Please model this.
Amino acid sequence: MTSHRTTRAALIDLGKPLRFTFDGTAYQGFEGDTLASALLANGVRVMGRSFKYHRPRGPLGAWVDDPNAIMGVTLNGRSLPNCPATTTPLEDGMQARAVNAWPSARFDIKGGLDLFHRWLGAGFYYKTFMWPDWHLFEPMIRKMAGLGDISRNVLEDYCADQVHDHCETLVIGGGAAGLAAARAAAEGGQNVVLVDDKPVLGGGVHQLAGVEDFAPRDWVASEAHAIEAAGGRILTATTAFGIFDHRMVGLVQNGPFGTAPRLHRMRAARIILATGALDRPVTFASNDLPGVMTIDAACEYLARYAVLVGKRIGVLSNNSLADDKLAMLAEAGAEVVRLNPADGAICALGRKQVRCVAQGRNSHKVDTLLVSGGMTPLVHLWRHAGGKLDWCTERQAFLPGAAPEGMVAIGAAGGTFDLDAALAEARAAGSGVPADAIPSRYKLTPLWPEPGSKGRQWIDFQHDVTLKDVELAARENYVSVEHLKRYTTLGMASDQGKTSNMAGLAAMAAVQGRPLPEVGTTTFRPPFVPVPIELYHGHHEKQLWHPLKRLALEQEHREIGAALGEYGGWLRPGWYGTGDAKAHIRQEILTARNAAGLFDASPLGKIEVIGPDAEAFVDFIYYNTISTLKPGHIRYGFMLTEGGIVMDDGVIARLDRNRFVISCSSSHVGSVRTHLEAWRQDGNDPDRIFVHDLTDHWATLTVAGPKAREVLTDLALDMDLSPTAFPHMTMRETRFAHSPLRVARVSFTGDLSYEMSIRRSKAAELWQALVAAGERIGAAPIGVEALSILRAEKGYIMIGKDTDGETMPHDLGFGVPRQKKKVAFIGDRSLHSVKANGARRKMLVGLTVSVGDKALPTGAHLVEGTPLQSVGYVTSSYDSPTLGHPIALALVENGTERLGESISVWHMGETRMATISAPCAFDPEGARLNA
Amino acid sequence: MRNDSNKWDAPAALTVGHTENGVALTPIELTRQTLISGPRVLSQADWSIVGWPGIAPTPPYALSLRRDRVLLVDGPDMADGWQEDTQRAISDASDAYSVFDVSGDRAFEVLQRGAELRLDAESKSVARLLFGIGVLLYRVNTEDQFRIHVASSHAEALVKSLKLAISALRSAGQGNSRPEDALSKTS
Model:
């Protein structure tokens, strides 16, 4: 056993042993361990397999930078895929399995794929599977693609809590610099929040012998206490995964395994970035063997988890930070062999883990090889916020440059790797009192990949991208870093290139003989660490994903068996009754035609336009002239866009001289309200026109059918219902159950019809009265599906269904206002354009089929010519129970001049014939409408 | 054309209070809500104007919605239409909005789950998006009693969201171990 637990004081609780399994074998760890640290403590080196070649993989890092140890974990019946072992806190009873390996990470049956690596280089898929057809290979490749398996068990209560928060100063990172900055800011009276992604604060401080004459843990506790005593807040196990507009920082706070994390949307006036830096891997032959690890990771395992990663440890470093760390490892009992990069190329030897390191003619028998190629500041969040990066030759790293507003980077994140300098810098940033910079003692000799060198040298450890792959990409002219990334998948693994990007950029720079900063970086995008999709949607799922509007009468509809569905953003009855839906809809239509249908039309818009300029305004808004409308009268009209396209149709009623009610389409209420509000303030006097959307205040119930008058008579309303006293397209106001009641004689079915609007709280009373009255004459409730057919029989259109994005009012048979309306209205100019007057405009028509033919498919093309060309399409098509034959509406070129012509209807390879007719197929004279 | 009845819970409009985790969600019955618009409706108001995070006095009071519009709560019965002498457009909107109170020490935490709110950032308007739904939000009586007016057709969704947010308080603090505690347990 190479890696093992030591007696060194650390951050685990030895009094709380935890049992767990990995790939079926039982192990023990302690509270405070991660899965990776517990496995290392048990001498387990191989914790996963690489994606492409299934090479054995052990942890390279100790936290979010590790690309190798990815596991599926189950605890108490809850399974989560692709958990990074280095960041998953150990819990009692955990069952972990390596992803991408079977039956185990140590003995993976697909490990043989590595034998074929010569033929599986970058771009292999693109080149190999083109012939004879990519789709032949697709199923197999899809099966092999991806990491981990998603459990089929739905985690029912896995719902992320989401909370908005704000602070004056947000400090990201709870290491030495972050703690010092947060304390200085909090003691300066600022509202401070400090977040750290680890469960225990301190960052790399615990690796140190001491901080400012304190033991590391005492110093951390003292700083944390001071922050909280000054009113600051500390969130541990919380990762800042992205910075968005106006310093909105996304924080993911993790809880026990299997529980959904919490999302904090933290708005910060100022952000202090103290995210630290990563220890870079070094590129050499077989650098992917388990046992090769960064120096910083090894020290973290020792400091936090009391795990010494090897007994005889080789060390390869190019920088001055390694010295203190080596002493720590030696003190813990390791035999340390230091290798000098200048002494020749390195090659790690071993099959499933490092056994030996060769350098030139020398060979060193080691069980572990620790590497450090220099420090890479974690600047991801800086870039999310729009900060610039500058190349630092001295540190061989991209450092934060021009800062985004309200943001500063300190400590290792800003390239300050010495503790005393970082603390001084942090306290200055926190307090706002400048301090003199302390010169850096950090020394480094560049150590980058060398193209052309021997052996397989890994750049991206999870995705198996090697130095040769980068060279190949360059040869094939994928020299841009963005192209390199996508061609080789470098940096596209679950770690998002935290350890591979710099090596990849350096390799490409070396291949091209260009300076590294000239090659540039790829784009940093949120999230910084993988987060579950649940984090983003929280409880906005299922019924709360896009909550439908609910009718006042929904319960009443449910009680009589309504089949509810979404229609225009509302949950409405489609039909009533269980079983054969088409039979129910057919019966509802016949009921409406023979007696009367009772319909809940509450979603219809009830938008009032009020004010001294209301009359002129509705004239401007509508295509039709409205100003001539008398109080108590109703007019059908169109609203157009500026382009002259029909955006809504409906009726408008005049209540008095200064007041109109617009009854727009149910699904267009929001857009019509916005339209009215926008135009009210543009070219009109907004102090003389006011728009009140009262759609939710009024419920609307419709009685439509030849016996509708009998139903209303039964209500004993205080009004004369005779056709002469209350004709079609008029409106009356009365009272029902001591509440105002508006009754409008308008029809969407072609029959005698009354629309009654009453305040929402009284809707049930009116509905029950109507149902009771209706029962006596054979009337019954009807749903939206029946109404859709009833209106189509009459040739009434639905905007968006029987019109498209080019339909103008004259295409629908309403051409008079275009020619004669004198006052300005929206869309006027566009109705006189060349296009509007074109000879081949698609116009609304009806279609009839031969006796015995079935209904035409909606969407079928109307075609003619050789070769066949589409000249229109079917917009609505139904079997009409009233007429006993199919009906259809269509938009067809030059339609109104082609009535009576036969036309071919093409759909899915089948061609049928239809005859172009007038849209109205039911009661064209309007006798029933005006009854 | 499909029957989605089972995908949507039957309406369970909040008719009695719901209390959990020390937060009470209470339906409020108002006598009248009146939408009033006019060029000087804020400056020449006859009632106390309430903005955010204002605490409304005993009714009647007027909620400031925008520079030319208020919602008068429990005001006198007025005729709908254009009022020439005051230059105001008036509409009864009593049933347009359902009204709820969220109260308790942690009531504000509940609301913070639905919107980015700050008590120290004043706004002349009480109009907000809460859980993605348009509402009118302000305080009544005390500092921890928040009143919400929501379009009646969206009340069902808002109540469901509020109840989930109230439940979420139970787990608040989860995963947020105090640093001293974490350090004191270690070897």
Notes: The longest strand of chain A covers residues 262-273. The mean pLDDT of chain A is 96.
